[in-house]
Amino acid sequence: MGTGDNGEHGKGPRANRRFRSQEWFDNPNNPGMTALYIERYLNHGYTRSELQGEHPVIGIAQTGSDLAPCNKIHLFLMDRIKAGIRDAGGIPMEFPVHPIQETGKRPTAALDRNLAYLGLVEVLHGYPIDGVVLTTGCDKTTPAMLMGAATVDIPALALNGGPMLDGWWNGTRAGSGTIVWESRRLLAEGQIDYEEFMDRVCASAPSLGHCNTMGTASTMNAMAEALGMTLTGSSAIPAPFRERMAMAYETGRRIVEMVWDDLKPSDILTREAFETAIVVNSAIGGSTNAPPHLQAIARHAGVDLEVEDWQRIGHDVPLLVNMQPAGAYLGESFYRAGGVPAVMGELLRAGLLRGEAMTATGRAMRDNLAGWGSRDRDVIRGCDDPLRTRAGFLVLTGNLFDSALMKTSVISDDFRARFLSAPGREGIHDARAVVFEGPEDYHDRINDPDLEIGEDSMLFIRGVGCVGYPGSAEVVNMQPPDALIRAGVSHLPTVGDGRQSGTSESPSILNASPEAAVGGGLALLRTGDRVRLDLNAGRLDALVAPDEWDARRAAWVAPELNHQTPWQEMYRAHVGQLAQGGCLELATAYRRVRESLPRDNH
Ligand code: FES
Ligand code: MG
């Protein structure tokens, strides 16, 4: 484990260290292979003494590209990362990562998280790399990179590209994604037309960077920081700020020291680190995508974590961050108020974090947070004056699924009053189920009067989980029929075996596992069934007689899966459920892959 007491960068005790890369570049026992390995890298203009000297080779996993605009800023940060690596005595080697653009990839970028993970593991294992900078940003890029680093277990330091600048529309903040969900309701109400809809949404993306709301991107980068896998204060810096470039440089410097100290993901990704991340997720109003991603990282790190931990550890934590979709502000304000370490400083002071976990700085989290707290109480509240108490997720169960999540920080007063506040039945809501077979079916039929959707309806969507979609789609935040919206009902309770965007303010019940495509209870539900949501008991049940339910199960036939690409077929064959992280199950058995040196290639 790294001790962090090596003093200045590059000045530590370094006797008898042999780097992994030297197995490629400096092996006198095998001159034929050494020459073969080294001659092609000399093409860069490196000298033999650089590649054969005491210079750790630092991979830089490049997730940015023209196809991945949320992470494209990393193309411009690369110079600063490399400068930091060189100044600390390392050799930078940038390599491309399979793109994972949330807004660009169909049928869903979720399908690509595990593919990029596999690619990263293969690169880190098969090339002369001693440590790695993980460039992160857009939603799934962050977990994919952390999952890969956890499996290989070489020193790894994450650097995100930062959120875009704040978007503005007619004098108010236009937040990534959140403005889409707002504007589509205005469109349904007839308050705006198509042109204004387009202008409003495009105003939310004023610069390079990832989503400027506390959507999945900002959430997952906050999670990376809370886990201890970034430098302190790294995750919230907006993409175009000079501090972002400076952080890129410091990240480059620090990863070289982490290699010298042999400070690995397995030293950092402990059970306490994940518990810390869960607490932070509640306090920032983080995305419902965080549980499956954290679960996946934990499994690849060999840490026991269960979806129930999110309620047990996270539910009672207050919401401190006033940022869309749970609050009002966007990324620039969050950064100026101190960002993630300010939130964590408030939590630590209130006794909600332990702070003992080792971090990438080589120090315990508590030490990193010394002196940190909110710099703007309107944006980051203290624990004694939160935006909301008990702001974490509920983990529900019942006869429709073993587990599903509900994000309580976005339950509006109107929603609570309408559905969860009947006198004597607080937290309980009975409804009539309306079931859709995926988003196409939903779009085709949502305005069909024959469905008789009213205020007592609960909308269900199925076939949109990991196996069903494939990849698990962000479609559970279904909006009510246009007529109901015009009548003032902006949200109905919605349920599904897919996910929803982290930028959505919908209090959906989602990530239902097991999904319908593998025979989860949702598969048996029919339009017209009565259902009961009981938040006090933590249950959602179809009120169908047991005999009838059993008969439906006996008659259930697994849906035929239509694979469009080889990867879709491979993914479906090996993926687990969202409650277990949606991992490639066979991959979770691999640990510390770096310790097994691959065979020579000639
Ligand atoms: Fe890429 Fe939100 S779509 S960060
Ligand atoms: Mg999304």
UniProtKB/TrEMBL annotation:
Q: Where is the Dihydroxy-acid/6-phosphogluconate dehydratase C-terminal domain?
A: 378-581
Which keywords label this protein?
A: Iron, Iron-sulfur, Lyase, Metal-binding
Q: Does the keyword Lyase apply?
A: yes
Q: Which residues form the Dihydroxy-acid/6-phosphogluconate dehydratase N-terminal domain?
A: 56-368
Pfam families cross-referenced by the UniProt entry: ILV_EDD_C (PF24877), ILVD_EDD_N (PF00920)
Residue ranges under compositional bias (Basic and acidic residues)?
A: 1-11
Q: Please indicate if the UniProt record lists Transmembrane as a keyword.
A: no
- Residues folding into a coiled coil are none
Q: InterPro entries of this UniProt entry?
A: Dihydro-acid_dehy_C (IPR042096), DiOHA_6PGluconate_deHydtase_CS (IPR020558), ILV_EDD_C (IPR056740), ILV_EDD_N (IPR000581), IlvD/EDD_N (IPR037237), Sugar_Degrad_Dehydratases (IPR052352)
Q: Where is this region: Disordered?
A: 1-25
Protein family per UniProt: Belongs to the IlvD/Edd family.
What name is this protein filed under? Dihydroxy-acid dehydratase family protein
Identify the species of origin.
Arenibacterium halophilum
